[in-house]
Structures are given as structure tokens and as C-alpha cells.
Amino acid sequence: MKVKATVHGAISLVNAIANKKGATLGIELKVEATIDTSTGKGITIQSENKSLSSRLINKTVEKIVSKKDLEKNKIAVALNSEIPLGYGLKSSSAISTAVALACAKIFKPKLTDQQILLAGVEASIESNVSITGAYDDACSCYFGGFNVTDNEENKRLHYEKIPSELIAVIFLPKNRNRGNLKNLKTLSAIFESAWKLARGSNYWNAMIINGLATATLLNSDPKIITSLIEKGAIGASVSGNGPSIAAITRKENEANIKKVFSTLEGDVIVSKVNNQKAEAHEV
Predict the structure, then answer these.
(1) Three-class HEC string of the chain
(2) Rounded CA gap, 120 and 142, in Å?
(3) pTM of the entire predicted model
(4) In degrees rounded to 5, what are phi and psi of residue 72?
């Protein structure tokens, strides 16, 4: 049997590291995982990106596929991703979720959304790809829309769709250095306030507060966040633990936002927002 799963990326509204509470929103950049099973044994991975964590993918497969089924099935995983790896755009959550969803479609079609999500989250922790398991990231990758979560409890506390006319203008800096993530705990009260705003649907102010705090703590320049707001972004933040910076805006402000980023060394990508749930089908 051969199944293809499509899962989208996401960006941060509130970083979950300080308090294990996060908020994210879905974007249209996507990952496709194709799982092909045949008689035999072993997991093979095919991907253009060599820095991909094969440990994460193996762990995810093992979370869904029973030992008995692993003994008699050769599982070939082929990955195709539009999401740049290692920039805070939730590539590993999208990949682990896509692999879990495709495996579930073949081996355990009755699994719930939550069980599929937890397979990826647990695999992320066990393979050291994520500190919190990134349940907030996984939710927006899987469901699309706005998601506000408690990562310690793996609970989604609030969800709604994103206005579809919005776009994300994302800057990928040439310098990939990230700051020390332990520093995020210094401002845990600020992240808590931002999270409460997001929980009350005040997403853009939550994102701006998060952006100013994370930029200050993780080697970015907080002035970039204020410049983006001045030029028409309704929300802007370092995404995840960086180094990417994302601005949410309307199409007519795209050129102004790009101008802010044009003074910096790096690349800019533009993505629509995403409200579409992940899906898997036989191919």
C-alpha cells in the first residue's frame, strides 16, 4: 500500500519554552510524506534535505506501526518539503506529523487526530528535536488556523480560522545563530501575558509582545519588529526559536514589509496563511 500525507507549516505567536504554553498559526508551505510498504523489513528514508533527522522519522514510524508489523513490512518514507529546515517554521513538526498520518492511514486507520499528533510530539522529544514536544506547532501544522495550547498537558485550549486574505512575509537570515534558549525563562511573566492575550483571540498583540521579547533574548534586533509594524504588519515576531522573522500583513503591504527586510542579509519568502486540515490518501 502507498499513501501520501500533506501537512502544512506554521509560525509562532507565543513561544512555549518559557511556560510550556504556546500559540501558533498555520501557513501554506507544505510537507508531503509518501509511505510505501512492501514485504520485508526495515525503514528507508528518501529526502533531498540531508540535514533531516532520520532518528525523528524512525521514532515516529515506530510510534504508529506495531513491532509485529515492523517485522514483516519494508517501509519506504519519501519526503518532499517546501518548509526551510532549522528556521523556526515548524518543519520537524510538519514532517513527524505527516509521517505519523501516512503510517496511521495504512496500519491504524482508526487512530484519532490526538493520537496521531502525540506520536509526532513524543518522537520529537525522544529524538531531541524539540524541548517541549512542540504540541502548539503540531496543532497548527495539522489543523491549520490559530491554535493556543498547553504543551505540558498536550491540550488545545483555543482554535479559530485565520482571515484568509492575510499573508506571511518571512525573512530567513543568512546568519543562522540562535541565542541561548534558557534566556527565554527570564521573561516568563511576559510570555504568560502574551499567551493569555492569544487565548482571548488577541493574536496580533500577543505576537508583537512575543516578537519583542524573543528578539531581545535570542540575538535579533527588536527594532525590526517595530519597523515591521510601522510598515503595515498587523503582527510580527521571531518564529519559534528563530532565526526567521515572520510578519503577518495584507497583500497590499507586502512590498513595504519586504523593504524592511531588504536592508538585512538573507532571503524573503511569502506564504499564504492556512486553514486546511492535514490529509492523507492512497496513491
Answers:
(1) CEEEEEEEEEEEEECCCCCCEEEEEEEEEEEEEEEEEEECCEEEEEECCCCCCHHHHHHHHHHHCCHHHHHHEEEEEEEEECCCCCCCCCHHHHHHHHHHHHHHHHHCCCCCHHHHHHHHHHHHHHCCCCCCCCHHHHHHHHHCCEEEEECCCCEEEEEECCCCCEEEEEEEECCCCCCCHHHHHHHHHHHHHHHHHHHCCCHHHHHHHHHHHHHHHCCCCHHHHHHHHHCCCCEEEECCCCCCEEEEEEHHHHHHHHHHHHCCCEEEEEEEECCCCCEEEEC
(2) 11
(3) 0.95
(4) -120, 10
Do 164 and 248 form a contact (C-beta atoms < 8 A)?
A: no
C-alpha cell at 151: 504543551
Convert the pLDDT of each residue in 237-271 to its tens digit: 999 888 899 999 999 999 999 999 999 999 999 99
Is the peptide bond prior to 243 cis by the omega test (within 30 degrees of 0)? yes
